[in-house]
Amino acid sequence: MGSTSAENHGSERPEGVGRRALIQRSAALGLISVPTMSFLSACASGGGDDSGDDNTQGKGKTSKDNPFGVEKGGKLDVVIFKGGYGDDYAKAWEAAFQKAVGVTSTHTGTQEIGGKLQPRFNGGNPPDIVDDSGAQQIKVDVLYKNDQLLDLAEVLDSPSIDDPSKKVRDTLIPGTTDPGLQEGKVVALNYIYTVWGLWYSGKLFKEKGWEEPKTWDDFLAISKDAKSQGIGGLAHQGKYPYYINVAIMDLIAKKGGLDAMKAIDNLDPKAFVGSDAAQAAIEAIYEVVEKGYLLPGTNGLTHTESQTRWNQYKAAFITCGSWLENEQLKQTPDDFDMKFMPMPLLPDSAMPFEAIRAGSGEPFIIPKKAKNLPAAKEFMRRMLSKEWSTTFAKEANSLTILKDGVDAGVQLRPGTQSTVEASKAAGDNTFRFLYTEWYSEMGASIEAASNELMAKRIQPKEWLKRAQAAVDKAAKDPASKKNHRD
User: Fold this and answer.
1) What is the mean pLDDT of each run of 10 residues along the chain (486 residues)?
2) Sign, Cα dihedral of 246, 248, 254, 257
């Protein structure tokens, strides 16, 4: 799942928020927090060959306005993960694409990405462009190792739709292409600007007199008070331990700083065992389990079941990425007042409270064997225009990786608005792990250990051992030497 979610898309409903001026100031999300991605861009190495592809099927004459030689009358096979963001935005894109370049699209919206697409990849008949996301995502590192993904350098180096004097890559929030890197090549375009952290109901907190906890001790105090009133402290999406790893990994990064984060991404022999930050983080999470602050039964719930109980005020907190609000539209009471907050601090943390995990999510890929590569590349180029970015914000209540990419008049819902504010407050203090994209098997092993820990079947010491074993196994793969954060 990683930057994805296994979401179910709810129906649209009115925002109920009229702070238009704030939206106008922050709406672009070209966000005043944009330099924020400096941690990311400074830490991931990149820069493979910018070679194009040999597949020129359907390629016509190129020009300044048609850099890839798209031929009118062609077809484009588009597959979109229909999760928390729905797929209405893509249908609007496809209509605009047909009008602009004369190419019609075959549209598939589904949550069964792996089930529907794995046979097509195996058979050499993949779609032209794919939103490869959700619980059934086909892992990007696996597709890359099988030589099934197009290097997107040609798209990123093409002229921007909005300002042809600039390359597309120069119009993006710095660092947001990093999660799509494999061995120095960008092979997936993570399109959505995402933040990860804790969520709570503003209404519930007001009723209970709770304030947003800035320290882990304050978080535990609220959880204790909640338990005394028959409310869970923390709900977690037990069947998908990816989500509790948001809390674990955030605590490690904030406690130990960028060095602790990079040790994990760089497969350090002391990434977990021998790391004071990792030990402190996992012991802090286990304290929630030991003291009974988890929502009862949460270990056996799916992401949406757990989130729905949280929407019913049965738990004070839940961990998630910023797709949560969209995913829970149908289940969220009108006056719930959804709020995002950074992970609270452990004692002597290297990063400030405002620091958040932020970056790009929702990977779009172009298969190497796509039938209409010119149109697929042009479609992706247009995704990175202000017009299409604004369409996405309107239809999906979320922000893209395009700097200043949303028209000022677009209104966002309360939860998404609170992520805008958190991003501004974070400034340069953002971070992002890349091991989930580089080493999916390692990520799955760490998630499995977290599942055992949350169910009290193992202790923190054993979790650290299992997590380190997963790192050590990944480090033995010679290919791992090609991925490195400086």
Assistant:
1) 37 28 34 35 37 53 94 97 93 98 97 96 97 93 96 98 97 92 96 96 98 98 98 96 97 98 98 98 98 97 96 98 92 97 98 96 96 98 97 92 86 91 90 94 97 98 98 96 92
2) negative
